[in-house]
């Protein structure tokens, strides 16, 4: 199956992206989607039941009706009927990314050794908004000591490497090319 690089740098299958767009188009309340996402995140047994070939379609539908809000149950029944219950968390992740994309918000993944100050973060946010014509930035922060110093910024498939590790690699390349 093909995959597409989603905004956060995490790969989402094309199926997850398609289902996420349908979920977005349903215009369900955020609480309903958040609650369903939480239930799937907390219950691996539920996913096992919904993926099981032994459990009948009708029994799966009864489980969905018992656990989830009626507003989202039809969507979950369709995804289960097509064997996509195992990628529900990926669908929710793709939904969040698509929702942000529709609102003009880009997701930026920042890897750092020392957390940035608010002033540095605002400067990076202004850069990202200007560079990607965005209205806002959703941050994913990750502490990564292997960078030695500085930071690594990923936005929409682009990488901005201002880390000591990256600088040392570039210096090594320059020296070995001579």
From TrEMBL:
Q: What Pfam families does the annotation carry?
A: OSCP (PF00213)
Recite the UniProt keywords alphabetically: ATP synthesis, Cell membrane, CF(1), Hydrogen ion transport, Ion transport, Membrane, Transport
Tell me where in or outside the cell this protein is found: Cell membrane; Membrane
Q: What is its main location?
A: membrane
The protein's matches in SUPFAM superfamilies, at most eight in alphabetical order, are given as: N-terminal domain of the delta subunit of the F1F0-ATP synthase (SSF47928)
Q: Does the keyword Transport apply?
A: yes
Recorded topology in the membrane:
Peripheral membrane protein
Task: Give yes or no: UniProt keyword Cell membrane.
Answer: yes
What does it do? This protein is part of the stalk that links CF(0) to CF(1). It either transmits conformational changes from CF(0) to CF(1) or is implicated in proton conduction.
Similarity section: Belongs to the ATPase delta chain family.
**Protein's name in the database:** ATP synthase subunit delta
To which species is this protein native? Answer: Claveliimonas monacensis
